[in-house]
Amino acid sequence: MSEIKWSEIEDKIARRAFDIAYERETLALIEGVRAKASAIAKLDDLWHLNDILSSKRYEIDGKYDYSHASLIFTFAGLLQEKWINLDELEGINPDKIAKIAALSRMQ
User: Fold this and answer.
1) pTM
2) Which of 27, 49, 104, 105 could form a disulfide with 80 if both were Cys (CB 3.0 to 4.6 A apart)?
3) 89: exposed, middle or buried (C-beta count within 10 Å: 0-12, 13-18, 19+)?
4) Number of neighbours of residue 63 by Cβ within 10 angstroms
């Protein structure tokens, strides 16, 4: 897919939605880690938590790439995972929102 053009206003809206999703997901991760950390009773539990965190770091670092070329796909995934909703993309071209919504149902 060729790079989709984003206007300055769309870019600001997209960046805000992107940052909101990132904050929501990372806060959820922190809350989950706090719950798991309180259940650590032995060294194997600690190593297991380390494995989970390493995996989540890789997943989050890969998911949150703010590249205009992949934003449609990024937002589709974030929408599907419920880290954002379509209302938070209001102001972005309706064709782009339609693509995001359609892709979120396919993934």
Assistant:
1) 0.89
2) 104
3) buried
4) 15
